[in-house]
Amino acid sequence: MRFSKIALLTAGLLLSSQAMATSKNITEAEARALHQQILTIDTHVDIGRGYATHLLDPGGFTKAQVDLPKMRAGGLDAVFLIVYAAQGALTAEAYQQAANAAEHSYQAIMRMIRAYPEQVGLARTADDVEALHKAGKRIVLLGMENAYPLGDSIKDVPKWAERGIRYVGLTHIGHNQFSGSSNPRADLNDSENDPGLSALGRQLVKALNQHGILIDVSHVGKKSMLEAIKLSTAPVIASHSSAMSVHANLRNLDDEQLAAIKANGGVAQMVAFRSYVAELDPALAAAINELRQQYLPNGWANANEEQRTSYDAKLTQLRREHPDVTLAQFVDHIDYAVKRIGIEHVGIASDFDGGGGVEGWNDASETLNVTWELMRRGYTKAQIQALWGGNVLRILRQAEQAAKN
Predict the structure, then answer these.
(1) What is the spatial distance between Cα 2 and Cα 377, in angstroms, rounded to a whole number?
(2) Alpha-carbon distance 22 to 29, whole Å?
(3) What is the pLDDT of residues 179-216, one digit of tens each?
């Protein structure tokens, strides 16, 4: 369902915390009213090809899952937009290509912010987030997914800190020069076993702490993750990972990893990525695989616009024809993590435009539905505030403080 910001602003009845804690029959108006009072932060949103150009202008409704109108319609206040480079070889030439890709992502995000200064602002601190929210603006924070573009040193950490990067994911798909990945790649000659942090990886953890940047352990192998948590002097974030005990996937966090995040004071952001949330319907999975072979034989990054458009249209139709992974199944992961490690260590992420989305929360315009489902399950206003952004703001401030000590 899609709701306008005007509707959110004019919604009527406000529920008390006690009523929310006991009632299961939550109306749409009640959900709107509560949602409007909460600062909502989605901690992982990728940007598409041609972002902030004539190909994809996020100031208008686009084919992307997140743009400014969809954020307003769904009441999504803040997003971590991602500076990303795919994993490649550990060579000087490949490092430079990755650095160029990261720079391209960063400049695209900054173009968007400069294009719509009255609507959106860049937050470099937790206080910035709250100030921009008070001013009625959408908020962009920056995350780096995969430290690979940093190359064979940590000399560029201060530059990225100054630019506003608030977390850095140590790895992505494939081991890199810093850390082992949860998903090793045979084509890069990765060991099946996580090698742990390298000497350079340990230096990176310390540098990130010194510059107030959160260490992101999503995509990181278990051995490397636990080593990073032990070494870090600030809380860590798993920016987009769900619970292994609810659905087994290499990208999810097992109970030992969740416990380590709790002990560190960090936050595990449960992610609404279908294949991390639940098993796909077998017929749907087979049909999607066939679709990829037909339209994306060389992967999404190497497909042309016509191939991508055709793939998206046919994928949407397939999901209408088959049972899909649902919002309720996603919130099951939130429930599990909250019961396992406590409400103060759990949060919410979509991975929109990077493969994320479930039926009921398939783009930013449907963000209200997450709050609505949490209310149905008896979460209070204070608890929903913690899940949607309060916990993230807390660890951002703790990382800022740790950098000063």
Answers:
(1) 21
(2) 17
(3) 999 999 999 999 999 999 999 999 999 999 999 999 99
Retrieve residue 343's tokens. Answer: 């409400």
Query: What gap in Å lies between CA 196 and CA 29, rounded to an integer?
Result: 49
Per-residue pLDDT reduced to its tens digit, 108-153: 999 999 999 999 999 999 999 999 999 999 999 999 999 999 999 9
* Block residue for tokens 């009441």: 75
CB within 8 A of 236, min separation 6: which ones? 214, 215, 216, 217, 228, 229, 261, 264, 266
Residue 346 clears pLDDT 50, i.e. is over it:
yes
Residues making up the chain, counted from first to last:
405
Greater pLDDT, 321 or 131 = 131
Neighbour count for residue 199 (Cβ, 10 Å): 8
Asked whether the beta carbons of 121 and 114 are under 8 A apart, the reply is no
Q: Report domain extents, the chain.
A: 5-278+325-404, 280-324
CATH superfamily of 5-278+325-404: Metal-dependent hydrolases (3.20.20.140)
